[in-house]
Amino acid sequence: MEVHQTAFLHGAALACAVALAMTGCDSPPAANPSSMSLTTAAAAPPAGTTVGTEIDDSVVTTRVKSALLADKDVKSFDIKVETRKGQVQLSGFVDTRTRIDYAIALTSKVEGVKAVENGMKVKEGRMTVGNVLDDGIVTARVKSALLADPDVKSFDIAVVTRKGEVQLSGYVDNRAQMGRAMDVAGTVDGVTRVGNEMSVKK
Questions:
Q1: Which strands make up the sheet holding 87-94, listed edge to edge?
Q2: Which of 32-46, 52-66, 125-139, 187-201 has the lowest average pLDDT?
Q3: In 3-state terms, what secondary structure has residue 164?
Q4: CA–CA separation, 103 vs 126, rounded Å?
Q5: What is the CATH number of the domain that holds 99?
Q6: Is residue 202's pLDDT more than 90?
Q7: Which of its termini does the chain have fewer beta carbons within 10 Å around, N or C?
C-alpha cells in the first residue's frame, strides 16, 4: 500500500507541475512600459481633437459624400468633402452656381453637420480628354510634392485640378503651413494657378 501511495503522490505532483508549466506558457508577457508609451503616443489624436471627434468627423464626411452622390441634381465626383468638429468644407469645381447653392443646402441637412464652408467654384470652359489626363497627372504631382515637403507633409490637404488650375482645400495646422503648401504647389510642373480654400484647424 505504501508503495502505491508513494507512486500516486509522485504522479499527482508531476501532473501539478505540468499544469503549472502550461499555465505559465499561456499567460501573457509582462507589459513593457516603454512599448506601452509608444503605442499610446502613436494612437493619440491630433491636438485639439479627441478620438471620438475624429470618428464622428469621418462618419459625417461619409454621410455627406453619400448624400451628394445620391442626389441627381448634384451627383458630382468633383466635390471634395472635409470635416473637422462637425464643420464641413466643400471644395472643387461645379457646373453652375445653382449646383453650388444646392450642394450647400443638401449638406447642411445631413446629420452631424454643424456648419458648411464653401470652397467650390464654377467650372469655366469645356474640358477635353487631354485636359482630364493632364489634370490627373498634375494632381498626383502636387499631392506627392506636398507629402514630401517636411514643412507641409499633410494628408488633410485635398487637391483638385482643372485645366492646370490647382485648388487646395482642407484643414492645416497654421498659416505658415498653409503658405508653404501654396508655394510648393505653385512650383509643380503643369500648375498654372493655385487657389487656396484651406482653413486653419481650430
A1: 79-84, 87-94, 115-122
A2: 32-46
A3: coil
A4: 22
A5: 3.30.1340.30
A6: no
A7: N
Cell, residue 80: 471634395
Pairing type for strands 87-94 and 79-84 reads antiparallel
Same domain for 89 and 57: yes
pLDDT digits (tens, 9 = 90+) for 116-145: 999 998 887 666 666 777 888 999 999 999
Distances (CA, A) of 40 to 1, 31, 53, 61: 61, 13, 17, 26
pTM for the predicted model, two decimal places: 0.57
**Cβ atoms of residues 107 and 113 within 8 Å:** yes
Q: In what order do the strands lie in the sheet with 193-200?
A: 157-162, 165-172, 193-200
Cα-to-chain-centroid distance, residue 101: 26
Do 201 and 171 contact (CB within 8 A), yes or no? yes
Q: Are 137 and 195 in the same domain? A: yes
Range of 97's domain? Answer: 51-122
16 vs 48: which has the higher pLDDT: 48
Distance, CA of 8 to CA of 43 (rounded, Å): 54
Q: Spell out the alpha helix ranges (H) of the chain.
A: 2-26, 33-43, 51-70, 97-108, 129-148, 175-186
Name 82's bridge partners. 89
Q: Are residues 146 and 105 in the same domain?
A: no
Which residue in this structure is represented by grid cell 503658405? 179
